[in-house]
Amino acid sequence: MRAQPVKGFGVVSKKLNLSNRAYRGIHAIQVKNIVGSVGRVQDLLSGFKLKNPDVRYYRLRKIMEKGDVVPPIIVYKVGNEYYVLDGNHRVAIAKELGVEFIDAEVIEFFPSERKESRTLRKKRIEFENLTGLKGIDLTEPRHYDTFINYIHDYAQRMELFLKRKVAINEAALNWFLSVYTPAVQCIVEKGLEDVYQGKTLGDIFCFILDYKWYKSQKEGYDIGFDNAMQGFIEEILGKDEPEEKKSLIEKFEGLLEEVLPWIKKE
């Protein structure tokens, strides 16, 4: 049987207009259903073989040959197919060894019926081209600018820690895995999607970043993302007005307008 070429998630996402997503947790998935990669297709040959196996590949291969446990990969699910965001080495080895199942953290994508404005589409394309991140759906153009600014700051912190130059797409992927994905999991667990109907997970994440900026300005120091997340949940979602309750979105926008007069509804 002829080996199949590796599919690119970006191509599939654009074709199917994939922008709605749902976090599915960690599951054992069938290796044969892993058909593509997110942003790494150029590094893979047909059949999901690495073009240039490196030291890490051979080290992981020895571990997997012995049957030792490796961390779950991270995949985007589209229908019955999976696209690897993190774990291309592990998948290449699993396919070569004939492994039937592999543990994966699954994020499922669905087509969106919402039509983008020209400005929003332009911002999304600019964001994807700069960072290499696909499928982050936002409803306001300014939110893509917020993400880019935050990723640039994150890259600078990585450079200080690693003492070397860090490319923006490297920082973006690291940020996505270590900051954005855990935050989105928390947003889902707290039920914020139900509160902010019509807004995406990315929008809600941006609301938390705005809250972080506001609180940091007020306190005179950077309160950090974890504190901002907790404060956002407690202060914004924990207050109900006994008479004539405002919607939570109205309360949040009112808070921001005190310190962010440049915010405009798109």
UniProtKB/TrEMBL annotation:
Domain DUF4032: 123-237
Domain ParB-like N-terminal: from-to ranges: 62-108
Classification via Pfam families: DUF4032 (PF13224), ParB_N (PF02195)
CDD domains, A to Z: ParB_N_Srx
Protein name (record): DUF4032 domain-containing protein
Species: Atribacter laminatus
